[in-house]
């Protein structure tokens, strides 16, 4: 089983600016900027298909290893597969006018942010194994039992599968 699922980030930044002295007392500054961030969590081929390999049904059987949360141990698996791109545009204009002892400043800034994200969520599920399943009957909560014993016996305390759908349109 591959423990590592690589994250990729690709960042592109472009800036353009110009300062102009229109007259000795009139200075103009204009700038344009563009940022693009592309990111993703891309599992390697050997990191896929684990639910089918271990006989887990009712989830995406071609996905990554399901999340395991074992009380008193580390958490394993459950990596979310996600892809996305974000674009940011920035236009900035300012004008400084010096008149005697006074300085007047005028300007504006326009920002536009665009985000396109796709996430499959934790579509292979997540299982939690805690102490109560292997605790002595009638014992105080948490006093006996072991999360690892519950895991080895296959007695999950809880399980969940995340399914999400969303859509939006802006004009």
Provide the fold topology.
Layout: E1 7-23, E2 26-41, H1 50-53, E3 67-70, E4 75-76, E5 82-99, E6 102-119, E7 126-129, H2 147-153, E8 158-160
Parallel strand pairs: 3-7
Antiparallel strand pairs: 1-2, 2-5, 3-4, 5-6, 7-8
Characterize the structure shown.
The chain has 171 residues and is mainly β. The longest helix is centred in the C-terminal third of the chain and has 7 residues, at 147-153. The chain is elongated. It is 6% helix and 48% strand. Strand 3 (67-70) and strand 4 (75-76) form a beta hairpin. The protein has helices at 50-53, 147-153, and strands at residues 7-23, 26-41, 67-70, 75-76, 82-99, 102-119, 126-129, 158-160. The strands form 2 sheets. Strands 1-2-5-6 form a 4-stranded antiparallel sheet, with no helix packed on it. A 4-stranded mixed sheet has the order 4-3-7-8. It has one domain (7-160). It starts with 6 loop residues before the first strand and ends in an 11-residue tail after the last strand. The model has no long low-confidence stretch (mean pLDDT 81).
**What would you call the structural class?**
mainly beta
Instruction: Compute the number of strand runs.
Output: 8
Note poorly predicted spans.
none
β content, as a range? over 45%
Shape verdict: elongated
């Amino acid at each position: 089983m591959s423990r590592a699922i690589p994250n990729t980030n690709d960042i592109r930044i472009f800036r353009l600016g110009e300062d102009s002295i229109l007259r000795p007392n009139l200075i103009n500054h204009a700038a344009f900027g563009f940022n693009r961030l592309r990111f993703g969590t891309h599992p390697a081929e050997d990191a896929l298909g684990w639910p089918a390999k271990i006989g887990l049904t009712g989830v995406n059987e071609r996905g990554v290893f399901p999340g395991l949360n074992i009380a008193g141990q580390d958490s394993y698996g459950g990596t979310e597969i996600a892809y996305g791109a974000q674009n940011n545009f920035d236009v900035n204009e300012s004008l400084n006018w010096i008149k005697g002892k006074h300085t007047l400043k005028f300007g504006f800034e326009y920002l536009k942010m665009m985000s396109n994200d796709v996430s499959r969520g934790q579509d292979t599920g997540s299982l939690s194994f805690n102490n109560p399943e292997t605790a002595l009957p009638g014992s105080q909560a948490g006093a006996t039992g072991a999360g690892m014993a519950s895991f080895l016996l296959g007695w999950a305390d809880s399980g969940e599968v995340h399914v999400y759908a969303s859509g939006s349109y802006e004009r």
